[in-house]
Amino acid sequence: MKISYNWIKEYLDLDVKPADLAEKIERTSVEVDDVVTPSDGLKKIVVGHVLSIEAHPDSDHLHICQVDVGEDEPLQIVCGAPNIDKGQMVIVALPGSRIADNVKIKKSKMRGIPSAGMICALQEIGFSDDVVPKDYVDGIYVLPADATPGDDVYDYLGMNDSLIDLDVTPNRGDMLSLNGTLRDLAAIYDKPVTLDQPEVKETGDAIADQLTIHTDADLAPQYRMRLVKQIKIAPSPMWLQIRLWNAGYRPINNVVDITNYIMLKYGQPLHAFDYDKFAGQEVYVRNAKAGEKLTTLDEGEHDLDDHDIVIADDKAPIALAGVMGGLSTSITDETTTVAIEAAVFEHDHIRKAAQRHNLHTDASQRFERGVNRAGVQDALDAAAEMMTDLADGAVQTGTAVGSDNVPEPAVIPLSLSHVNAVLGTDLELAKVVHILESLGFTVATAGEDMTVTVPIRRNDIHIPADLLEEIARIYGYDELPTTLPTGRMTMGTLTSAQKLMRATRHSLEGLGLNQAISYALTTADKAKMFMMQPSEETNLAWPMSVDHAVLRMNVVTGLLDDIAYNTARKVKDVALYEQGRVFYREDGNDRPSEEEHIAGAITGTLMPAGWNQPAKDVDFYQIKGIVEAYLKDMAINGDVTYEANADMPEMHPGRTADILVHGHRIGFMGQVHPTIAKKFKIGATYVFELNLQAIIDMPKQENQYDVISRYPAITRDIAMLVPDEVTNDQIVALIEKRGGAFLQSVKLFDVYDGVKVPKGKKSLAYTLTYQDKHETLVDDAVTQAFEKVEKRLQDDLGAEIR
Amino acid sequence: MSLKDKLDELHQRGLAEIKKSTDLKDVNQVRVSLLGKKGPITEVLRGMRDLDAEERPKVGAFANEIRDDLTAALTKRREELENAVLNARLANEKIDVTLPGTPVAKGEPHVIQQIIDQIEDLFLGMGYQVLSGPEVEEDKYNFEMMNLPKNHPARDMQDTFYITKEILMRTQTSPMQARTLEKHDFSQGPLKMISPGVVYRRDTDDPTHSHQFHQVEGLVIDKHITMADLKGTLQVLAHELFGDKFDVRLRPSYFPFTEPSVEADITCFNCGGKGCNVCKNTGWIEVLGAGMVHPNVLKMAGVDPDVYGGFAFGVGPDRFAMLKYGVDDIRNFYLNDVRFLTQFTKKG
Ligand SMILES: [Zn+2]
Q: Cβ separation of B229 and A485 shorter than 8 Å?
C-alpha cells in the first residue's frame, strides 16, 4: 500500500523527513518497499495557458499553439495531442526541462515549424497509465482553470508529496489503511492522534421501506448498506483525485472514488451499486448456485458454483462477495441512487474465491487479512457523508443491516516478569504499560500483573507472545541487550554418519573431484536411469516444468547434465562428485524412502596436458583408482571386489563393474554407454555411484600400528602367459593363497596383449615381495616358495611362465 | 746432500706436481709416485739406517711431517677437482625455474557446502547438534506443526511442490525442528540444534529464484532463553560468516511459527553501511528471518510453553553466498560450471 506523507502529516504532528519516517516504519512496524516523490528528477515543467491554436500546414494532426507560460512573450509549441484546445491550462515542459525517464526537452522544429518545448500528457511526466483519468489517457492533461501560467505544475498534481510503499505482512491487515498506520505511528513517536469521526446527515426516507437484506451470518458476519439518492455523478475534486492517483488508483467519478478513498482511509472495502438496477428491493448474501454466471466490473465472465459467496438481487448474482462487483449494477454516468455496501466476509472464503477466479483485488486482499470489525459502520457513514458533500446525495434514513456480528475484544493476561524473561530486558512496569496504551490498548494492573484489552481492529493479537512483539518493537530492537544462551552445557558433535559424509567429501576432493550440487527434481526419463534397485517413480502433483517433475532415483544423471552444461560451454575436462539423496518408492506408499548416495563422473582428462606431460584421456582404471582410494579411505572392514556387469542398459557392457563389499553390491562404475552419452551430448564419460548409506552402516577398520621389519625384503619377478579369460583377480588370489608365510605383497607391473603374444593369450607380470619380520630371510626359502607358486599357476590357471 | 735436504726437495717437488695436476687421474698418479711403496719418500726413509741413533727420530719425524702435508695437499686437490667437476655438471643442469609446475589433481568443495560447513562448525562449537531430516515431508511437519494450518494465508507465501495432498517437498528445514522437539527429553538438558539441507519451492528458475536451494535453521529451547540471546547468536553468526565489521539489526516481521518475529539485516557488503544501490541506500541488507518460538509450535510438539521457550532462525546459504561473493544468478550454484565451482578455493 502506498501511503501519502502529506496525508499522515494532516493528522500527526511529525517533524521528520519522508525518508526518515519510512526508515522508522521499517524498523518498528512493517517493511517499506520504497519512498518516492513523483516530482523528483523533473525540471522546468510549468502551467501553460493555450492562447491560440492553428493547424500545422504540413500535417493533418499537429497544431501550432501559442502558450502563455508566465513570461513576457508566449511560447510557440507544436502539439500533436487530439484534445488540445484554445483556452486550456496545460502542462508545459519548457526548453531545457527534464521529463520522465530523464528525457531532456530542447527547442526543435516539427515539420519545419519551430517548437519551444512540449505540452505533456501525465504519462510523460511519470504517471503510470493505470492511474491517469480515462479522459486524458490518450491525450494531454488539462489542469484546473484557476491554475497560474508559469507556476511549477507539481503542487497542482500532488507531485511534491512523498509516497511510502508499505509491504504489509499477512498479520498486519490494520496497516492497509491510513487510520491503522496513524495509530501505529502515534505509538512509535509517542504522540497523540485524533482520527476523523463521520457525521452523516440523513435527509431521506427510511431505508427499511426501500431495501431489505437477507444474510447468512456464517457467510458474512457483518453486512450493511446505506442508500443515497439524487446523486449527481461528476469527476471528483482535485484533492481527491490526487489522493487516489498517488495511492495507485485511477480517479473515475465521485461515487467510485469515494469508495476507494474510504477504503484507503479506513481499510474497509466498500462497494457502490446502482440501486435502480436491482431487480426488486431485496438483497441476498448467499452461496451461488451451480450454473449461475456473473460478469464482473472488469468484464470478466465467471461460472459460479456453491463454493462462491455472491450478493444477489431477486433474479441473479450482482457481485462476487468481497472480491468484485458485477457489471450490471455498476455505477454509470446516469446513476442517481447508490446503495453503498460495507461488510465483513470470512477471510478463508475470500482467499479461496480470489484464487478460484484469479481475481486478487484490493478488497479481497483486505478481507483475507481481516478488516476492522468494529469500524464497518464508521466507514459506511463516512462514505455516505462524502456522497452528500461531493455528489449532492440525499442519504436515506438508517442503515439496512443483514448481519451484525462484532467479536469481543481479546483480553490477555501478562506479567512484567514474563516480559523481561522473554525479551532479556529489565523494563519497568510503567514503561510496558505506557507502550501498550500508546497503541490504544487498555491495561489494568495488579502488582506486576497486567490485564490487556486489545482493540478489535488489531485482529492479530491473541496471546501474551503477541503482546511481547508489540512491546519489543515499540521499545526498539536496537535497545535489546546482546547475549548468548546460558544454562546447562550441551555437547556439539557430529554423528558418525555426518563425520563419514564429511570424510567422503574430503576424500573425493583430495582425489581431484569438484563437488557439484545438481537438481534432485528431474525428468521422468532421467529419474529412472542408472538404477541400483527397483523402485516406483515419485512424481510431483503440479510440477512447474517437465524438466523438474520427478524425484531422482540416481545421482549420476545430474552429473551428466552438469557435464553437458560444461561441454556446451567448451569446458572439456570435468571431474565432479555429488553427495545427495535418491528417492525410492514402494508401490502403495505415497512417500518415498530417502537414501544417501555418492556419485562421481569424469570426462576429458583428469590432468590437463602441460608443457612437460601429455594429456591422458580418462579411462576405466582412473575412475576405478578413485573408487579404490575412496573406499580405502573409508576403511570398510571387508573385502571389496569388482565384478564385470554387462547388464546395465545405460553402461558400456564391457567396461562396467559392480562394486561389492563382502559380496554385497553397493554400487557400480564404468563407462557411460555411448548411446546414452550421445543423448546427453557429452563425450566419453566414466562414472560411479555408491550407496553411501550402506558405507555409513558397514563396520570399519581401526587404525593400528604394525612394526616395520628391520630385516631386508627379497623380491622376485614373475611373467606369464595366460588365456585371455583368466583375470588379474584370479592370479593374485592364487599367488596370495599359495605364496607361503613370508609373502608380503603381490604387485602387477606389466600387462601386454600385443603382437608378440599368441592370440587368445595375454602376458602379465608381477613382483612378489617376501620378508620375515623376525630374521633375515634365506634365499633358499624364497626360491622354494616361489617355485611352488609357479607350479600352481601352471597347473591351476594354465599359465606359461616366461 | 743430507737426508733432510733431500726430503725438503721432495716436499717442494711434490707440492708443485700436485698443483700441476688437472684431473683426478693425475692426482692419483702423483699420489702413487710420491707416497707409494716404491716412491722417493719411502726410499729416503730406507736410508735412515745410516744415520746416528740421535739423528734418526728427528729425520723420521720430519719425513712423517712431509708425508702428512703431501697427503693433505693431495686430498685438498682432489676435492677441488671433484667440486669443479660437480659444478660443471650442475651448471649444465640449470633449468628455467619460471616454467609452470606440474599440475596436481585437486577438487574443491561447493561454495554452498563451504558456507554450510562454516555455519555447522560455528554452532557445533556452541554446543548445538546438527540434524538433517527427510526432504520429502508430511504436510503435518512442514506446515501444521509450524503453526500453519491448512487454510493459513501464509501458505500462499511459500508455494509448495506437493506429491499428494499430505506429502510434499519440504519448503523449509524446520520440519526437523518439530520432529526433534517431539522427541527431546528436556530432563537431559536444553535442545540446541541446527538443521541444514536442501529445500524446494514451486518457483520458476531465474536469476533470483531457484526451485531448489538450501536452508540452515536453528532452534534453542530451554527454560530461560531470551530474545537478547537470539540477537547475540545472530551477531556471532554474522561475524563468523562475514567478519567482525558487520553489524546486525533486527526489524519486525511475520512468521507463523515465531512470535515475536524478526528479520535480521546486516551491514551492506557493498558500501559498508554508507548506503548504495545494492542496499537501496539503507546501508543494510536483509539476510535472515528469526524469532521466539510460537507457543503453539511448542504445544503441538508436546512441550509446555509455560515452562520452556526459545528462539529459532533460518538462514539461506545460497543468499549468503550471493551476497558474500556478488554472485548475480542463483542458478550458477546448480549448473556446476567447473569454471564457477573452482573459484571459491581460498583457504588461508
Ligand atoms: Zn550498500
A: yes
Most A CBs within 10 A among B115, B157, B336, B345, hence the mutation to make, goes to: B336
Q: What is the mean pLDDT of chain A?
A: 94
Count of pairs with CB atoms under 8 A, one residue in A, one in B:
256
With a cut of 90, say whether residue B52 has pLDDT above it.
no
DSSP states of A679-725 as a string?
Answer: HHT--SEEEEEEEHHHHHHS-BPPP---PPPSSPPEEEEEEEEEETT
pLDDT at B151 over 90: no
CB < 8 Å & 24+ apart, contacts of A132-136: A132/A245, A132/A250, A133/A235, A133/A241, A133/A250, A133/A251, A133/A252, A134/A250, A134/A252, A135/A83, A136/A83
3-state secondary structure A508-533: HHHCCCEECCCCCEECHHHHCCCCCC
Nearest chain B Cα to A574, which residue? B338
The CATH architecture to which A2-37+162-189 belongs is 2-Layer Sandwich (3.30)
Query: A641 C-alpha vs ligand 1 centroid, how far in Å?
Result: 57
Q: State whether residue B128 sits within 8 Å of chain A by CB.
A: yes
Query: Cβ of B254 and A171 within 8 Å?
Result: yes
> Above pLDDT 90, what percent of chain B?
59
> CATH for A202-404?
3.50.40.10
Classify A43-143 by CATH class. mainly beta
Domain ranges of chain B: 3-92, 111-341
pLDDT of residue A536: 96
Is A410-479 the same fold as A202-404? Answer: no
- Tens digit of each residue's pLDDT (9 = 90 or more) over A127-178: 999 999 999 999 999 999 999 999 999 999 999 999 999 999 888 999 999 9
- Residue B115 Cα, ligand 1 centroid: separation in angstroms? 22
A517 and B112 within 8 Å at the Cβ level: the answer is yes
Secondary structure of A276-287 in HEC code, one letter for each residue: HHCCCCEEEEEE
Distance from CA of A581 to the nearest CA of B (A): 9
How far apart, in whole angstroms, are the C-alpha atoms of residue B244 and residue A619?
A: 48
Name the residue ranges covered by the structural domains of chain A. Answer: 2-37+162-189, 43-143, 202-404, 410-479, 496-697, 714-801
Please report, rounded to a whole number, the percentage of residues in chain B having pLDDT higher than 70. 98
Q: How far is A580 from chain B (nearest CA, A)?
A: 9
For chain A, percent of residues with pLDDT exceeding 90: 88
The predicted pLDDT at position A346 comes to 87
Question: Nearest to residue A532, comparing CAs of A681, A634, A650, A637?
Answer: A650
CATH number listed for the domain at residues A496-697: 3.30.930.10
Task: State the complex-level ipTM.
Answer: 0.88
Domain B111-341 part of CATH 1.20.1600.10: no
Per-residue pLDDT for A70 more than 80? Answer: yes
- B28–A contact, CB cutoff 8 A: no
CATH class of A410-479: alpha beta
Residue contact B292–A465, C-beta within 8 A: yes
Residue B158: pLDDT band (50, 70, 90) is low
The beta-carbon neighbor of A485 closest among B100, B167, B222 is B222
Instruction: Using pLDDT thresholds of 50, 70 and 90, give the confidence band for residue A773.
Output: confident
Using a CB–CB cutoff of 8 Å, tell me whether B329 touches chain A. Answer: no
Chain A's closest residue to B104, CA to CA, is A607
pTM value?
Answer: 0.87
CB < 8 Å to B125, chain A: 492
CATH of domain A714-801: 3.30.70.380
Chain B residues within 8 A of A521 when measuring between CB atoms: 161, 169, 200, 211-212
Least confident of A404-408, B39-43, B178-182: B39-43
For chain B, the C-alpha Rg in angstroms (whole number) is 42
Which grid cell is A130?
493505470
The 8-class DSSP code of residue A636 comes to B
